[in-house]
Amino acid sequence: MTQTLHVQIKSADRSDLEDRLEAIDAGEDVEPSEPTLSIEDLETFGRVFCSTNLELLEAIVEHEPGSIRELARLVDRNPPEVLENLNELADYGLVELEEDGRAKRPVVWYDEIDADIPLRSGLGQERKANA
């Protein structure tokens, strides 16, 4: 079964999360929501989903490497550079680094990314109105 992560470019909106937590606390049944990552702007989106990071994500999903060193071999890069990219991906929740003895094993729980990229922004609308 395909697991999809939905990515959107907008400020993180936590109001829905607060409502869902209140409903859970009240004992209500809550439908699971689709996993969604909000990225604050297009520049950050471009940095997080650059070609080198996408190559890492693809290699993790396809080969399930047992360590960062093994992943670095798969993508023909130096382990410290791969670790730097993985740390950024982990900061956004795109990768988990699981302890496996002395090694850290990169894990991705999804196998597809669906990106919602708006071509109009509220800021752009205001600039047109003031022109």
Automatic annotation (TrEMBL):
Gene3D superfamilies: Winged helix-like DNA-binding domain superfamily/Winged helix DNA-binding domain (1.10.10.10). InterPro entries: ArsR-like_HTH, WH-like_DNA-bd_sf, WH_DNA-bd_sf. Pfam families: HVO_A0114. This is HTH marR-type domain-containing protein.
